[in-house]
Structures are given as structure tokens and as C-alpha cells.
Amino acid sequence: MIPNILILALIIVESGGNPKAIGDNGLAYGCLQMHAAYVKDAAEYANADWEHNDAFDPVTSLQIIKAYMKRYANDDRLGRDATSEDVARIHNGGPNGYKKSATDAYWNKVKSKLIEFGRKDLAEGKPINI
Predict the structure, then answer these.
(1) Of 51, 61, 62, 70, most Cβ neighbours within 10 A?
(2) What distance in Å separates the CA atoms of residue 119 and residue 124, rounded to the nearest whole number?
(3) Residue 49, CA distances (Å) to 54, 60, 109 in order
(4) How far is Cα 83 from Cα 19, in angstroms, rounded to an integer?
(5) Regions in the chain scoring below 50 on pLDDT
(6) DSSP SS3 for 121
């Protein structure tokens, strides 16, 4: 299960908590700023009928991120237990985002929020159970 505090950090970094946010030149929706391909991927994995507009609903967006991470941030794919860093970088950079240096700056923002929230353990690589 992805820790709620990690999801909150992602939401704050992505949209400041605005469920109606639209970013990335109109391509990213909702409080977690999800692209259509992200939602489609998660829906396929979860056998759900989510569409891109569902990312505007905070409750549905939580279901979407959880399905996406079960698909991509699991120990079979990573070869180890996932960390908050893996989740943040996959959320930001796609299925292989945890390998991309382009997601480093994003992770640093999320990491700062986790430390601010008093969760240094999650900021420093504590494994999480996806």
C-alpha cells in the first residue's frame, strides 16, 4: 500500500492540492496531474473503465495511482521492494521513470515534502509495500 503521506506529497508537488488543475499544456489532469496514457495503463491493469477525465475526481485518482504503481512499482519489475523514490519517479517519468535522470529533480521536490512532513524514513529509501 502506498503510504498516504507519500500520495499527499505527490499531490502538493503536482497541483498544490487542486483537483481541477490542468497542466502540461492541457495534457495533465487533476490533483495528481495524470496524462491519458497513465490513466489508460492503470485502467487496463485494474480492469476498470477509467477515462482521462476521471483524473479530476480525487477518489478515482487515488485508485488510478494505486493501480499504476501495482503494475509498475512492484518487486518483480524492480528486482527489490519499491521505495518512495521509485513511486515518485515512476509517477513522474512513466514505467521506467525510476531509471531516468530526468526525474531526479522531481524526486527531490517530493523528498523535501516528505522531510517537511516528518517522514525522513520514507525520504531515505525505506521500502514500502505496493
Answers:
(1) 61
(2) 9
(3) 10, 11, 32
(4) 25
(5) none
(6) helix
